[in-house]
Write a structure and sequence with these properties.
The protein is of the alpha+beta class. The chain is built from seven helices and 18 strands. It is globular, with a radius of gyration of 24 Å.
Length: 348
């Protein structure tokens, strides 16, 4: 039997079937090379291929047991080469700039479930969304999304060590274009803004709040890395390693090195500075997730024990309770913008 939540007036049956469609929809990102001075010339852009190469490595893994105290065993391991076949991608020696291109769409209707088996809960969820749109207008979320576009967070490792980074954003439907210097906007917080960021954020907010049906952006990032330098497409997850002779497989699309749309989307929604540990030990913004999960750290920053996870907050606010503070309101609605399946298990 589905669990119930109390809204102060009575028990509300929580949906056992509940899903929301994502409202931030990025495309895959294509990687090209160019010269910095010619970065605006489409004819000077060259597709970056993924190439295969074989390398001979040395032993570097942690030794076990008796191997630690045996010089002979270590020497024997060193004599055996660590042969690997890997994918790689790099700029040609004539070009010093990576150009990453993708499109990004923002949609309305984050508060409307795509599947919900409890009519009363459906009504309260949509009311919660309308209440948020009235009180906040999606402005804070939109501003943070816009800053993550402007600062080039979606470049991930390609952002490191770049001499210059220019982000060009174009909205075809409105004949608008914005150009940002990525280094004007830090990655650690969302304090820095600009008139251009506010203008872009206003259009994103209008799309999320339903004042316009959608917003489609073309994004081009120009990153001056240096001639011949490595670039970093997405790495493929190989589920059946027995069928692959490569230790690293990079993503390519149409024979062009590329970044997964999921990786770009994760960067755009890395806006959560509302989790409890933010501000401690140089903490950084994390991606919007129901439990604040950061896989590379092996940690969940939002736990039910602290009542800061999405499900605890969502059950409260989607049962008719008013928002208690801005941070929880922004977080809950940001998860709905992210989308996902959030049904209440029938047995717990």
């Amino acid at each position: 039997m589905a669990r119930k939540a109390n809204n102060g007036e009575g028990k509300v049956e929580l949906s056992s079937v509940l899903a929301f469609e994502k409202k931030i929809v990025p495309s895959d990102g294509y990687m090209y090379s160019s010269e910095w001075e010619k970065r605006h010339d489409i004819h000077a852009m060259h597709a970056i291929p993924v190439i295969e190469k074989s390398v001979r490595g040395t032993i570097s893994n942690r030794l076990k047991g008796s191997d630690k105290s045996s010089t002979d065993k270590l020497d024997a391991k060193v004599e055996n080469p660590n042969l690997q076949t890997v994918d790689s991608a790099s700029l040609p020696f004539d070009d010093d700039t990576l150009v990453l291109c993708y499109t990004l769409k923002f949609l309305a209707g984050a508060e409307i479930p795509s599947a919900c088996n409890e009519p009363e809960h459906f009504r309260l969820i949509t009311e919660m969304g309308k209440r948020y749109a009235t009180e906040y207008g999606y402005k804070e979320l939109a501003r943070r999304y816009a800053i993550n576009i402007a600062n080039g967070r979606f470049l991930w490792r390609n952002r490191v060590g770049a001499e210059q980074i220019e982000i060009i954003v174009k909205a075809d439907t409105d004949d608008k274009q914005w150009t940002f210097n990525a280094y004007d906007f830090p990655l650690k917080d969302f304090e820095e803004g600009s008139e251009l960021v506010e203008e872009l954020a206003s259009m994103i907010a209008d799309a999320l709040s339903g004042k316009r049906p959608f917003l489609l952006l073309q994004v081009k990032a120009c990153v001056q890395l240096g001639k011949g330098q490595d670039v970093y497409p997405s790495e493929e997850l190989v589920l059946d390693k027995g069928k692959s002779n490569k230790s690293k497989i990079l993503y390519e699309k149409d024979s062009i090195a590329a970044m997964h749309s999921q990786k770009i989307g994760n960067a755009i929604r890395t806006i959560d500075t509302w989790y409890p540990a933010y501000g401690q030990d140089n903490a950084m913004p994390i991606a919007i997730e129901p439990y604040g999960a950061v896989t590379n750290l092996g940690k969940a920053f939002r736990t039910p024990k602290e009542s800061k996870d999405f499900y605890t907050l969502f059950d409260k606010y989607s049962s008719g309770s008013p928002f208690e503070n801005d941070e929880e309101a922004h977080y809950v609605m940001a998860v709905l913008v992210r989308g996902g399946v959030f049904g209440q298990a029938s047995k717990e």
